[in-house]
Amino acid sequence: MSNFPFLSVLTVAPLVGALVVALLPRRSPDLAKLVAFAWSLLVLVLSVAMWIAFQVDGDRFQFRESYAWIPNWGVNFTFAADGIALVMLMLIAILVPLVILASWHDAESSKRSVPVYFALLLVLECTMIGVFAAADVFLFYVFFEVMLVPMYFLIGSYGGHQRQYAAVKFFLYSLVGGLFMLAAVIGLWVVGGKTFDWQALSQADLPTDTARWLFLGFFLAFAIKAPFFPFHTWLPDAGGAAPAGAAALLVGVLDKVGTFGILRYCLPLFPEASKWFAPWALALGLIGIIYAALLAVGQNDLKRLVSYTSIAHFGFIGVGIFAFTTQAGTGAVLYMLNHGLATGLLFLVVGMLIARRGSALISDFGGAGKLVPVLAGVLFFAGLASLALPGTAPFVSEFLVLIGTFTTNKPVAVIATLGIILAAAYVLWMVQRTTQGTLNPALTEVDGMRRDLSLREKVVVAPLIALIVLLGFYPKPVTDVINPAVRATMQDVGRTDPAPTVGSVQEAAK
Amino acid sequence: MTELKLPSIDYAALAPILIMLGAALFGVLVEAFVPRRLRNPVQLLLALAAVLAALTMVILNADDRLITAGHAIAVDGPTLFLQGAILILAAMALLLIGERAVERGGAFVAHAAVTAESVDDRRQAAGAGGTTEVYPLTTFAIGGMLIFVAANDLLTMFIALEVFSLPLYLLCALARRRRLLSQEAALKYFMLGAYASAFFLFGVALVYGFTAGVPDRAAGVDFATVHAAVGESSSSQVLLFAGMALLAIGLLFKAAAAPFHVWTPDVYQGAPTPVTGFMAACTKVAAFGALLRVFHVAFSGAAWDFTPVLGAVAVLTMLVGAVLAVTQTDIKRLLAYSSIANAGYLLVGVLAPSKDGLSGTMFYLVAYGFSVLAAFAVVTLVRDADGEATHLSRWAGLGRRSPFFAAIFTFILLAFAGIPLTSGFTSKFAIFAPALDANQAWLVIAGVLTSMVLAFPYLRVVVMMWLSEPGDATPTVTVPGALTSAALVIGVLATLVLGVAPAPLLDLATGAAEFVR
Asked: Which of A371, B69, B137, B348 is deepest in the core (most CB within 10 A)?
């Protein structure tokens, strides 16, 4: 079974599905939805099979496939997945069917073609899988850039208020980062021996100065994508304007490409430069944690608020990566997964609220829990997961990041902890202003607010809630997969974990 | 007593050039003797047949590496590759020129002598048959371009320059509608082009003077002599530098590089759109073919001296093209500035003195030619009762009215922006990689930065077409005739195929990337 070409099939399958869906007649939107949903379930089944076939104690990279593409430049279709990529692929496979289900009626509110909306979602899935499955730098870059196109049209054609502005801003920001990366990719190709193969490049011996410049090129692209402070300003606009389903994929998966890229490309390919730039990256992460959290507290737009919380969370992930310990690294990767689940859930639930009320402003709500108690409950749960309450999955990852960081860099860990407090503030305050308190009389006049969660919506949120709780109590299956990959990455950087300092603990105990 | 020796002439190697020029002369006869209503199909078939015959000869000559006609013509890899490129792109342009279904009588004026804006002018604009002199003119221009990229001495190059420029000046003046704009464009192009030619000729003279100053060698303007003189000369190099600069001005003018670009937007806007496409694709190939030959063959010994200057020109060109493209409100002017910026990228390739640089530049020329012709083909289709609707505001909501053509145009714009899986990306890579390899990182960084700026105007058009609501002024897309459809399909397919599977063309370009001297 492990000889099955999982990764290429997984990449191509959604694209085929997208073509099928796009060619369905425009007048039968329900058929398009069903086909798209079934197709994404098929991809999910395949991903689960891949997860089972992945050998935890096997090679770092598995399912390797390679086909020649442009021999003149040494470009190959090379796919391979390590534990980190596997987790992200799984996240995509889980989120996409749920997003399709959650967006069942989203496209109808715009005057645009419904089948095209679902076809775009599947194209997006294809590029997202490709970007995580690629083991050829050129191929990675291709997916990294092409990914923009479906997302651009999802935001621009099906988004809400200010969608044009948000779509263009999103595209331009990403393109700017991508072009810097292109320069770095070409530079890497030139100094790395005219190959794009990840494994060959990670063995290459680069001059220190060149490596630092190349690191900057890659890092800039990833920092914009992630996004880290100060490259984050596109996300609240894009997240605020995108339809809820697309927004869930945007922050849930797309942005992870940035942090994944840092782990897969920046650290192993430019270890010296990574260490040299680490203090700066940590600083950006810390500023992001505090600054974005403060901005989130002040937001009156639900989707923008969730976008800002994501920026804060990406700060945590960045700190976890650049702390250079296995614990923090594992925490960061786990955070990428958990954030995808928790924020994905939050975005979907918020989307359901907004669809009912017809407004994204917190001030238009108030006491909504009295009208839609189940929805309010789910919102509360998603909020708690987002602020990393113990018992939910994000807690495990946040905790790992913090203790992993603490062993090497105490001040950073201490400052980052402040973020937890702020997280409680923005989540709880948001929940309180929307669902608690006295009922806003205007709400009762809105028809939608009298309908609580439908069966379809329950099916959307249930798996996410289950996973968040499950991974909150028993993250071992995931950490087992992540750990070897992170350890190997840290070895690439040349950092070993500090030995447990028993002595100092005893001294402290005195 | 010197014996007069006749140069040996390899007629097979010259066949593509001879076929095109012969067909052009024959076209003139057709004008004189064939009845008016038959002229258009006859001329079109004649021109296309000539292009196909010439292309066949280029393919048959594929292995030639020789210098013939008394050192005047070099038939080598780059010559054949670029001649093939010019012929294929010219065939597409001829399809656009021959289109009669989109507008009654075609895109060209019925009688060029009719005063613009007069009653007669309005009558001809309403649908009299277009002039058919455009075909011999185009064929002459193609023939000139074929000589231009093959010229092995500066005088031949100058003559070729004139042979392909003069018909182009005329072609620009032949638009059916907006005649004043068209005539202004032609006059502007002619005046500035004449200046540029004069610069070029003066440069030839100075270079001749320089070679004459080298002791123990015969003076001359063929590239082998110039190359040897550059390599050996211990005398003053003032003549060389001045000559090189003047030659460069002449060539950069044709290539539409800043600061010699000012004619481009006006001419692109005023010329009939099929001619604009022809210029954007074929003239660019010819101009850069000549630039490559002059700087890689004749002056390669002075690379240290011209690289910084040409590099500065490249950066300036990219900047001017990209920044000014942002402010444009007319699609043809926007494409003109985009073509200026692309000239800048191509210069980066010219400055990478390696086999990869040469093959990358040639690859870029072909890829860009296909995309830009397809782009102008779409422009000819978006029209209302008054002709083409080129103002950008008129394109608002086009995606709703005609999603198919809007999608095609979006794809081409994404290619111009360099998004992967389009030829725009692979060709940028093909140019930037050798430039970095040649330690020209600053040019690559400038290229990347201007690409970002340039993405904005392209994206604005995409936004216009898809995300804006159609207004009353939104024109419809005319159903294209078979000819335009063919050109469009070829252009779009080439843009896609060269983006997804560029290897065959890259192999071809790499195999051809060696000059003979």
From this structure: B348
End-to-end CA distance of chain B: 29
Decide if A71 and B467 are in contact by the 8 Å CB cutoff.
Answer: no
Residue B513 CB contacts under 8 Å (≥ 6 apart), including other chains: B77, B78, B355, B356, B358, B359, B362
pLDDT digit string, tens, across residues B306-340: 888 999 999 999 999 999 999 998 999 999 999 99
Q: Cβ–Cβ of B455/A172 closer than 8 Å?
A: yes
Please state, for a pLDDT cut of 70, what percent of chain A lies above it: 96
Q: Give B116 or A479, the one with higher predicted confidence.
A: A479
Nearest CA among B143, B169, B347, B157 for reference residue B247: B157
Question: With an 8 Å Cβ cutoff, are A156 and B463 in contact?
Answer: yes
Q: Where are the domains of chain A?
A: 270-499
Q: Quick one: pLDDT at residue B64?
A: 81
Residue B451 vs residues A188, A402, B492: alpha-carbon distances, Å: 20, 41, 21
- Show the beta-strand stretches assigned E in A95-156: none
Judged by CB atoms closer than 8 Å, whether chains meet at A186 and B441 is answered as: no
Can you tell me the ipTM of this complex?
0.85
Q: How far apart are the first and last CA of chain A?
A: 56
Q: Is A146 on the interface with B (CB under 8 A)?
A: yes
Tokens linked to B26: 């024959």
Q: Is the dihedral of CA B448, B450, B452, B455 positive or negative?
A: negative
Angle (deg, nearest 10), helices A6-23 and A29-53: 180
A500 touches chain B (CB under 8 A): no
From B430, which residue of chain A is nearest by alpha-carbon distance? A73
CB interface of A with B, residues 186-205, below 8 Å? 186-187, 189-190
Q: State the Cα–Cα distance between residues A314 and A302, nearest whole angstrom.
A: 19
Higher pLDDT, A239 or A213: A213
The model's pLDDT over B113-151, given as tens digits with 9 standing for 90+, comes to 777 777 777 777 776 777 888 999 999 999 999 999 999
Q: Rounded to 5 degrees, what angle do the CA atoms A429, A432, A435 make?
A: 140
Cα A201 → chain centroid:
26
Question: Under an 8 A CB cutoff, do B436 and A73 touch?
Answer: no
Nearest one of B474, B275, B481, B267 to B383, comparing CA atoms = B474
Structure confidence by residue, pLDDT tens digits, B429-464: 999 989 988 888 889 989 988 998 998 899 888 888
Q: Return the HEC string of A442-458.
A: HHHCCHHHHCCCCHHHH
- Phi (first) and psi of residue A75, to 5 degrees: -95, 130
**Partners of A68 in the β-ladder:** A76
The residue behind tokens 């890092």 is: A219
The bridge status of strand B382-384 relative to strand B73-75 is unpaired
Q: What confidence tens digit (pLDDT) does each residue in A149-193 have? A: 898 888 888 877 788 888 888 888 888 888 889 889 888 888 888
Tokens of A459: 């099916």
Of B414, B455, B503, the CB nearest to A72: B503
Q: DSSP string of A191-215?
A: HTTS--BHHHHHH----HHHHHHHH
Tokens encoding A172 = 């331009």
Asked if A81 contacts A29 with a C-beta cutoff of 8 angstroms, the reply is: no
pLDDT tens-digit map of B205-231: 998 988 887 777 778 888 888 888 887
Q: How far apart are CA B457 and CA B453, in angstroms?
A: 8
Identify whether the C-beta of residue A8 lies closer than 8 Å to the C-beta of residue A139.
no
Contact A145 B432 (CB under 8 A): no
Report residue B38 as tokens: 């038959």
| Confidence class for position B92, pLDDT limits 50, 70, 90 | very high
Give the pLDDT confidence score for residue A510 in this predicted structure: 42
